[in-house]
Design goal:
- Strand 5, helix 7 and strand 6 form a beta-alpha-beta unit.
- Helix content is 28%, strand content 32%.
- The protein folds into 6 domains: 31 residues, no CATH class; 177 residues, 3-Layer(aba) Sandwich (Rossmann fold), CATH 3.40.50; 85 residues, Elongation Factor Tu (Ef-tu), domain 3 (Beta Barrel), CATH 2.40.30.10; 71 residues, Elongation Factor G (Translational Gtpase), domain 3 (Alpha-Beta Plaits); 116 residues, 2-Layer Sandwich (Alpha-Beta Plaits), CATH 3.30.70; 112 residues, 2-Layer Sandwich (Alpha-Beta Plaits), CATH 3.30.70.2570.
- The chain binds guanosine-5'-diphosphate and magnesium ion.
- Guanosine-5'-diphosphate (GDP) binds next to helix 3.
- Guanosine-5'-diphosphate binds next to helix 3.
Length: 644
């Protein structure tokens, strides 16, 4: 019983010391507890603050290294794994979705240093989270797997850090592995980024080898933040999370001045005024503080109702002191859109509340209402990428028990309409379309554009052939090809986003047995011959099954869709013609023959029970059907066709 009581009394003591409302904070160890009470974070001088991030390709060991850093600084107990991955999907998939922050105290040469670690997600969909996190840092640990070597995201992340003028500490991880080849990877780093091999640290995050060196390098190589505590308050919102009881909580980096409880603050772009209710540092659980000073990173609670109010990149200042805003960064822009509909309309409310709650926490998702004749009331949601979409729908199911229908993901196309007096006058001659249902008739279109990306692929040279044909097939145009060392190549391609978004990554992994890696960056719009591939059932257009495609792909995709539909649409009383058309021209056609006769018609006289049974079956079957163009389609049809 005793330990429980201890915890209880400590919570009470804590509540007395910090007089504002507390959510229970559970301390993982005695050492941690004493840290949080003895050291006043606001008194650590700026020269002893380091803000850094770990960047790496996915699975190179960021989260594991973060665990070790937290352990060694006594922030958490030994043996807790992936402590910063809190979401269920993160733990299941072993990926980090949401960036997390932790403040560590490290004693170096007798002085306490405050190290603010920002764990970043590694997947390309979340590169925006990485760039946000970097804007609060002065240095990064560039972590590279000593076995895998430099990968596509290593390159992308390095350049992100480089353009942000951050100090890069190169670290090779997993040197315990049998096949680790540190010399080769050092060579790659030198060829690509001109990193001196003598500067490279070699560690094993799993076994805890070399971690002390990493901490020491953070202190000695990364500069302290260049901030001024005497200026008026300026703080950058670089992330945001949602708490059921306290609303939106902002992760802030204090650039100038200081912020205290009860201060009256205003967000620069939103122009809304708030009172500071709670301030805390993350270790990685919340530890309340009364004040945050320039150079520090912490969590701010000020009764914001949703994360939509907290604009990432916005600057916070004291309400009565005007300031110049900090340079904000690019807000996240959704790349992939999909319709989400409830299985049946009785679940509409449930799904709506689930989506509302999830988006409270994920401000990158955009939500618009959408209705479809076949699927009913639903939403069109925008995501950062396909993984983001998958993670979102997985969370809908896992955390809220919702089972939505998801339509085929689409990107946003730009369309220039033929000029008319009206549209030239009000500027509506350029429109953006992400839903095939809204694609204008071809006679009204002057020109169509599609979003492009620059893709970076790193691969062992033995897979070069198949990878180049994959890129060709996806309408890619090569920009460059260079050797990293004598067996690895880095390729750059211009590719249309829609060709990449769906399954490019999977195909690349398959043809290279998992060895090639891929990353991409946005590269604006390019003129392209796009058409709407319409699907017609007995001459009636079914927009839920239609698609926007490149003209050269229309025939192949049309053929596939039609064959697939022929397989899954059940035979009925009437003849069904399935057609795929482009601008009224038929690309592919299949027929489903009608049943010859009503099977129940023959059953008369004594066979009443059988007749009843058949009629009942037919009635039950009909219930689950949707009437589309006088044809009853099972609801699953939509899902089956859309599952590619
Ligand atoms: P992240 O995706 O970059 O966060 O990578 P994780 O930290 O999740 O690590 C990916 C995998 O690599 C996990 O299975 C870890 O156990 C493993 N791993 C991480 N560091 C080491 C290491 O030093 N040695 C070995 N052998 N495995 C490691
Ligand atoms: Mg991770």
């Amino acid at each position: 019983m005793r330990p429980k009581w201890n915890l209880f009394f400590n919570c009470i003591k804590f509540r007395i010391k910090y007089k504002h409302k507390l959510v229970p904070v559970f301390y993982q160890s005695k050492r941690n507890r004493s840290d949080s009470l003895d050291v006043n974070f606001a008194e650590i001088p700026i020269e002893r603050i380091r803000n850094f991030s770990i960047i790496a390709h996915v699975d190179h060991g960021k989260s594991t290294l973060a665990d070790r850093l937290l352990e060694l600084t006594g922030t958490i107990k030994k043996g807790q794994n992936q402590i910063l991955d809190k979401l269920q999907v993160e733990r299941e998939r072993g990926i980090t979705v949401k960036a997390q922050t932790a403040s560590l105290l490290y004693k170096y040469n007798g002085d306490n240093y405050l190290l603010n670690l920002i764990d970043t997600p590694g997947h390309v969909d979340f590169s925006n989270e990485v760039s946000r996190s970097l804007s609060a840092c002065q240095g990064v640990i560039l972590l590279v797997d000593a076995n895998d070597g430099v990968q596509a995201q290593t390159v992308a992340n390095f350049y992100l850090a480089f353009v942000n003028n951050l100090v890069v500490i190169p670290v090779l991880n997993k040197i315990d592995l049998k096949n680790a080849d540190p010399a080769r990877v050092c060579n790659q780093l030198q060829t690509l980024f001109e990193i001196n091999p003598n500067d490279v640290l070699k560690i094993s995050a799993k076994l805890g080898i070399g971690i002390e060196d990493v901490l020491e390098s953070i202190v000695t190589r990364i500069p302290c933040p260049s901030v001024d505590q005497t200026l008026p308050l300026r703080a950058l919102i670089f992330d945001c999370m949602y708490d059921r009881y306290r609303g939106a909580l902002n992760l802030i980096y204090v650039q100038d001045g200081s912020i205290s409880i009860k201060d009256s603050i205003t967000t620069f772009h939103n122009k809304k005024e708030y009172e500071v209710k709670t301030l805390s540092v993350l270790r990685p659980g919340e530890v309340p503080v009364d004040k945050l000073v320039a150079g520090q990173i912490g969590l701010l609670g000020c009764n914001m109702r949703s994360t939509k109010e907290a604009h990432i990149g916005d600057t916070i200042h004291h309400s009565n002191t005007p300031i110049e805003p900090l340079k904000g960064f690019r807000p996240s822009r959704p790349m992939v859109f999909a319709g989400i509909y409830p299985m049946d309309q009785s679940q509409h409310l449930h799904l709506r509340s689930a989506i509302d709650k999830l988006t409270l926490n994920d401000s990158a998702v955009t939500v618009d209402l959408d209705t479809s004749p076949a699927l009913g009331q639903g939403w069109r949601l925008g995501f950062l990428g396909l993984l983001h979409l998958e993670v979102f729908t997985q969370r809908l199911t896992q955390e809220y028990g919702a089972e939505p229908i998801i339509t085929a993901p689409s990107v946003t196309y730009k369309i220039k309409l033929k000029p008319t007096k009206q549209n030239v006058k009000d500027g509506s001659d350029i429109i953006f379309v992400n839903n095939p249902a809204n694609f204008p008739e071809h006679v009204k279109i002057e020109e169509t554009f599609e979003p492009m990306i620059i893709g970076t692929i790193v691969t062992p040279d033995r897979y070069l052939g198949p990878i180049m044909s994959l890129c060709m097939e996806r309408r890619g145009i090569q920009r460059s090809a260079n050797n990293i060392d004598n067996e690895r190549v880095i390729l750059q391609y211009d590719l249309p986003l829609c060709e990449v978004v769906l399954d490019f990554h999977d195909s690349l992994k398959t043809i290279s047995s998992g060895y090639a890696s891929f990353d991409y960056e946005d590269n604006g719009y390019q003129s392209s011959n796009l058409v709407k591939l319409a699907i017609l059932l007995n001459g009636t257009l079914v927009d839920e099954l239609s698609n926007i495609v490149h003209i050269t792909k229309a025939k192949t995709i049309g053929r596939q869709m039609v064959l697939k539909l022929k397989d899954i649409v059940p035979r009925q009383m009437i003849h069904i013609a399935i057609q795929a058309t482009v601008n009224g021209k038929i690309m592919a056609r299949e027929n489903i023959k009608a049943f010859r006769k009503d099977v129940t018609a023959k059953l008369y006289g004594g066979d009443v029970t059988r007749r009843m049974k058949l009629l009942a079956q037919q009635a039950a079957g009909k219930k689950k059907m949707r009437m589309v163009a006088n044809i009853s389609l099972p609801r699953e049809t939509f899902i089956d066709v859309l599952k590619k």
